[in-house]
Structure formats: structure tokens, C-alpha cells
Amino acid sequence: MAGNRSTLVLSVVVAALAVLPLTGVPDHHLRLVAEILILGVAVMSLDLLIGYGGLVSLGHAAMFGVGAYAAALFATHVSPDLLLAIPAGIVAATLVGAVMGALVMRSANLFLLILTLLLSQMVWEVIFRWRDVTGGADGFRGIPQLTLPGGMAIDSGVDLYYVAGVLAVGAYLVAASFVNAPIGKALVGTREQPIRMTALGYSIPRIRLSVFMVSSAIAGAAGALYPFVNLYVGPQVAHWTMSATLVIMLVLGGVCTLFGGFIGAAIYLVFQTHVSSYTDRWQLVVGLAFVATVLFVPRGLGRELHQLLRPLGLGEPRVTAETDKKGTVR
Amino acid sequence: MPLSDFTRRRFLAASAATAGLTVGGLPFAAPALGQGKGELRIGLLTSLSGPFASLGESMRAGLQLYLAQAKDGIAGRPVRLTVEDDQAKPEEGVRKVRKLIEQDKVDIVCGVIHSGVALAIRDVVAASNTLTFIAGGSANNLARKAASRYVFRPTKTNWMLGSTAGTWAAEKISRKNVITIAADYAAGREYVDDFVASFKAAGGQIGRQLWTPLGTTDFAPLLTDIAAAKPDFVYTFFAGSDAVRFLQQYQDYRLAGRIPLVGTGAAFDQEDVLPAVGAGIKGAINTFHQSPSVPVAANKLFVDAYRQARGRLPGEFSTSGYVAGQVIAAAAEKVQGDLTDKDKVRDAVLGLDLETPYGPMTFDPKNNQAVLNIYVNEVRVGADGKLVNEVVHTFNGVRDPGATA
């Protein structure tokens, strides 16, 4: 029942977004929305780790960045075909995610945070130093436009917007089915009751490795599309500050909601792009918004939206973060 | 901001005049506020947050000073200046330049400090044929493979500073035992590589080459290496706060005065670096296209006006903002303010022979790059006890080799 309603709401949102370009929104705004959708997908993949798995990672930008560079390099040197370049990014990010997951799957809490931070900084260092391949600190330019299999170029903001939209819907469906699948339930179980889950015969490291790989694949898909928005990619996309930005977006949007990632990404990017047109102190505004969110809307705007939609039959998400008594998730 | 008052007043006056004409029974004779005339929209893309924030503020102040002096606008058109912050991030620069072109519909884009931003926006402005004046970002590539028909650069290239420093140092200081230390990003690599090339060509020998990431706070390990190696001199490039910290620590480690410093002018910028470092670094040599002591009338006028406006000597970026305004205005005057025919504007820019605060400036038609005098500055203690860059030698009319290099 509630499931049907939320499918309905989701369909309405998607339909509204689908006709947005027809309303005469300028091209560069559509590019911004495309960027929001792409970063939203990355935040959503991080939500699988932080929200559902209780695994607070500060290294998620590594997978996003590897996906971005892999797709950009693939498009430049092999083929700019969308159906090849994006999978190239997904594969590369999944491999990195598998290595990172294997190294951190036995740790939790602070150790996990530090390990993911260090591992992702190693990835950043490789991108930053390997200037012959990645362009080093200057970033990578001269990326061709993505093409559809027929050879049609994806060049305007509208095209990018639709590609990002398809990516977002696809990634949402993958993430939602993961969460609802037995392994998703087991993941929440390992967050809530690790000892009981072990006693029941679940292998916690194996579950964590799986969620790391799924999350990395989704982040890689988002990263893979990212360079084509501006035809440029720089090493900052893999830097730990990017990971921290993703965490901030997640908190703003609301953990354990999946779609909250899009809300958080939208707030952050709109602030960054538009507030900075009016004041040099835009970072202060973002900071205050973040503080206000934590103080007044501690569950994130996405969860509050859920609350508002309750009369429509949309209850709380079935798995809530607050139930975690150890406070590893907030 | 006096400038916004000024445009608002002019706008009100123009509206009143238009209304008057309409009421006067001439409804179709109202002046067309269309493409050719009317407001001249300039978009300034610069870094107002992030590591280059103070440089960006200087650039904005320089351009605003020029526009405030040009009371009647540029070529008879009132100017509307839109300033956008690229946060010294290439992605953000691209986002903002798209906004300037598509939403604000600017006639001209200018500014840019970070070379990475300059290279990243290059494809966007080239694709939309936007008249662009890169006033800061000095990556060599923009005068070479990445040169573009309507992208002009009224400032130096990194090569112009690096190669002149190599020539000068080999001749006047020493030909052996040199250590280079620089920030590890595009600009640092280019300055040092160009320095090394011309230094070697003049018979010099290079010792160790040290690199540190942008934003380094502690130079101790590298400074102890330098102290142990006792080089004849150190060639350096840092910008902004990195330069301040490096020069402070260079004095803390008692290297100042013992091992001569040679560098690019940015590391000894008059406005953004020198006021923050001690007198210990006096005697340092740098090559630059700017100095408060450049002996031309335009510079004296600018330095005085800038001092009055902001109470300090101008450095590279305030000068660059001012010069960008001057070049835009001179080109616009030549086409009577009509920027619709971009090839005409291009011809006008390439035909300029201006006296700017940098000194004489012409443009190289093969890559739209300014040809400039490069000065060898020595950091001295001025009459007021403050450090000042004094010109001790001038390389006249230095021209980037362009795409063949």
C-alpha cells in the first residue's frame, strides 16, 4: 500500500523532472541540475554505507574520482560511446571499492573512518602525481563529448540532463532493490546487532564487502558521467574534502532515505553556485545552513519531507537510523 | 559601491529621456537599447574565496578603479560589471562562466587568476565565441596550442618570466650549484622548466629540484636540505600565502642574506606578499612584468590613484584588473563601442599600442598574447622602511615563442 503510493510519488517527481527542459529553463541551469543528479547518485551510494551499514566512510570520493578519470581516459583514448565509457568507470571504481572494502571490512567506527580516509588519499596521490596520464594538478582536459551508440553527440545541457536523469533513476532502482533484498536487511542487521548476526551465521565482513562493492559501482557510475558535464576533471574530485562534502550533503538531505542524497546535493550546489554570486562569504552561509540543519532538522531534510508526506500514506522509512543505540549513525 | 550608483543614475537618466521622447509624440524614435549600443556588460571571473581570495580582491579593486576613472563609461556606453567567484576551482569556473554568458549575457569575460581555471573555461568561451581577456592565468599553453581566436591575454606568460630569470641569473649571479624549489602545479612546473632551459642554455648547471604541494605550511625539511647543500642561489616560485610562509621560514632558518633568492615576481608580489614578510629578504631578485617603479607615466598615475583608493602599493593582480579595463576600453573605443563584429574587435585589439602600468603593450597576432617588457626587480627597503620592488634591468618587448616552442 505505502509502497504503491511511494512509487506513485516517485513517478510524479520523475515525470516533472522529465518535462522540466520544455519549460524554457536555460541551458546552464539544466547543466547544474545534471550535476545535482550526478552528485546525488554519489551521495545515495554513500548512504548505503553510512545510513544502512553504519559504516562512516571518509573515502568515498576515491571511487567517484576513479570512475571519473577512468571514463574520461576511456572516452579520450578508446571510445566516447556512452555505453562503453560509463561501464569503464563503473568497473574501475568497483575494483578500487573491492580492494578498499577488503582492507576495511574487519574494522568499524573510527578505525574504518581513518582507514577509508587514508586509502582514498592514496588514490588521490596517484591521480595527482601521475601527470602523464591524468594531467596531475592541472586536471584532465580535451575530453571528447559522449556519444550515443548511433554516434549522436551528447553536448547540450538538455542531453546531459536526460542522461543524468536516466542514471539517477537507474541508480535509485539498484540501490532500493539492494536495500530491500535479503542482503540489505542483513546489512542493517549487522549495523544494529553485529553479535547476534554473527551468531545467526552471517559473515559480517562478507556483507560489508558486498555493500562496499555495490556502493562503489554506483559511485563509479556517477563519477563516470561527471567529467562530461564540464569536459574537465581535476584531482579534487578524488580528494578527501570531496568525501567530506558528500557526507555533508548526506546529512543535509537525510541519512537512510536514499533520495535524501539528491536533496542534499541540490542544497549544497545551489548554495555554492548562487550564494557566491552575491557574497564572497558564501562558505559562511553554507556553514550556517549546515549548523541549522544539525540543530533544527537533525534527521535531514529528506526525512522531514517524509514526515510531511505522511498524510499521503508515506510513512517513515522502514529502517531508521535513530534505532542505533550506540550512536554510530546520526 | 560608487560604480553601481553611477550606472543606476545613468540608467534612470536614460529611462527618463526615453520616457520623455515617448511622451513627446515620438514613440518610434526611442533609441534602440540593443546589441550595438546601450549597456556594456563585462563579466569578471576571479577568485574571491579559496587560496587566491586576496589576489582576486586585488584584481576586482583594480578593474573597479579603472571603471570609476572612466566616468563616461567605455566608448560612450555605461558599463555594468558582474563579478563572479570561481573559488579557484576549475569546475566552478566553468559553471560561473556559463552563467555569465548565458544568463547575464555579458559582452566580455575577463579576469581569471588560476591557470587551471583559465584552461578549463577556454573551451567554453571558445565554443561560444565570447570575447575573453585573461588578465591573470599565465599558463604557457594559452599562448600555444590552446590559443583561441577571441581569447586575448593582456598579461605575461610563465615562459616570459622563467626564461628571463635564467638568462639574468646565469649572467649576473652564478652558473653552477642552483637549487629550484616551487609549488607543484602547472604554474610552478612551467616557471621552473623555463628557468632551467634558459639557465642551461646560458651554460648554467642545475642541482636538486624540490617540489611542494600547493598549500604547504611547513617548509622545514626542504629548508634544512637547502641549508646543507649551500647552493650559490635558490630559484623559487610560490604564490599568495604559500609565498608568505616560504619567505618567513626562509628567514627563520637564517638562510636569508646567506643564500641569494631569485624567483618569479609572484613570489615577491608587492601587494600580496611583501607587506607580510620581514625585511630579511631584501636583496632578493625577481623577474616580473609589473613593479610600482616601472618608469612610465601610466604606471605613476595608476600607482598614485591606487594608493589613494586602497592605501597601499599595487601588486600584480590589482594592476592586471586595471590593465584589463584599459585594454577593453581601448579596443572598444576603436570600434566605436560596437562589439557585435568580433573580428573587428579582434583586429582592434591586435592593433593596439598602449602605454599601460606594465609599460608598453602590443599584441602578437599569432596567438593574441601581449608582448611586454619584463623587469628584473630587486627587493629593497624603501624610504618609509617598507619593502619595495625596484626595477634594476629591463628586457624590452619579450614575446612568447608561441606554438612552435
UniProtKB/TrEMBL annotation, chain A:
The keyword Transmembrane helix applies. Keywords: Cell membrane, Membrane, Transmembrane, Transmembrane helix. It is found in: Cell membrane. CDD domains: TM_PBP1_LivM_like (cd06581). InterPro entries: ABC_transp_permease, LivM-like. It comes from the Bacteria. Pfam families: BPD_transp_2. The chain crosses the membrane at residues 31-50, 57-76, 82-103, 110-130, 160-188, 209-229, 241-270, 282-301. PANTHER family: ABC TRANSPORTER ATP-BINDING PROTEIN (PTHR30482:SF17), HIGH-AFFINITY BRANCHED-CHAIN AMINO ACID TRANSPORT SYSTEM PERMEASE (PTHR30482). This is Branched-chain amino acid ABC transporter permease.
TrEMBL record, chain B:
SUPFAM superfamilies: Periplasmic binding protein-like I (SSF53822). Residues 40-383 form the Leucine-binding protein domain. It comes from the Bacteria. The keyword Transmembrane helix does not apply. Keywords: Amino-acid transport, Signal, Transport. InterPro entries: BCAA_transport, Leu-bd, Peripla_BP_I, TAT_signal. The keyword Transport applies. Coiled coil: none annotated. Pfam families: Peripla_BP_6 (PF13458). Belongs to the leucine-binding protein family. This is ABC transporter substrate-binding protein. The lineage of its organism: Bacteria, Pseudomonadati, Pseudomonadota, Alphaproteobacteria, Rhodospirillales.
